[in-house]
TrEMBL record:
GO MF annotation, one: protein serine/threonine kinase activity
Pfam families: HATPase_c_2
Lineage, highest ranks first: Bacteria, Bacillati, Actinomycetota, Actinomycetes, Kitasatosporales
Protein's recorded name: Histidine kinase/HSP90-like ATPase domain-containing protein
CDD domains per record: HATPase_RsbW-like
Keywords attached to this entry: Kinase, Serine/threonine-protein kinase, Transferase
């Protein structure tokens, strides 16, 4: 799989083996499948990837995409890019409202809202950008290690 300009998107015309067809990422389930297929294609050349890191990747993808659908006026795009330290994920939605938790980590919990603290714990380099055409993009780096890394 060769990413387009270093970024693999669901609408770039590049499909990872086993991933959804371009443009088909419309749910957390298809986003998870797509991200996992890109990770396994990137780390599959004999090295493999640590399974617990793949689980972390899938949790982060699921939380970000679900939040975009539920709280961001719908999923506007999903990008995956393998980088040296792991997978860079970007989720675009249609709401310019930045999650309150992006400014201050929640210290109290009211029964829901576990997603953002989970993302903050499992991912690095979390960035929230407003998009010029409206909405926002939340991008993160999820570290992935080779299977033989202790």
């Amino acid at each position: 799989m060769e990413p387009t300009e270093g970024i693999t998107t669901a609408s770039s015309g590049v499909t990872a083996p086993g991933g959804p067809a371009p443009g088909a990422v419309t749910s957390a389930a298809t986003a998870r499948a797509y991200a996992e297929s890109v990770a396994r294609a990137r780390w599959g050349a004999g090295r493999g990837v640590r399974e617990e890191d793949v689980v972390d990747l899938l949790l982060v993808v699921s939380e970000l995409v679900t939040n975009a659908i539920r709280h961001g006026d719908g999923l506007a795009g999903f990008e995956v890019r393998p980088v040296g330290e792991g997978m860079w994920i970007a989720v675009h939605d249609n709401s310019a409202v930045v999650p309150r938790a992006a400014y201050a980590f929640p210290t109290r919990h009211h029964g829901s809202g576990y997603g953002w603290p989970l993302v903050a714990r499992l991912a690095r380099d979390i960035v929230v950008d407003r998009r010029p055409e409206g909405g926002k993009t939340i991008s993160v780096l999820v570290p992935l290690r080779d299977a033989d890394t202790p």
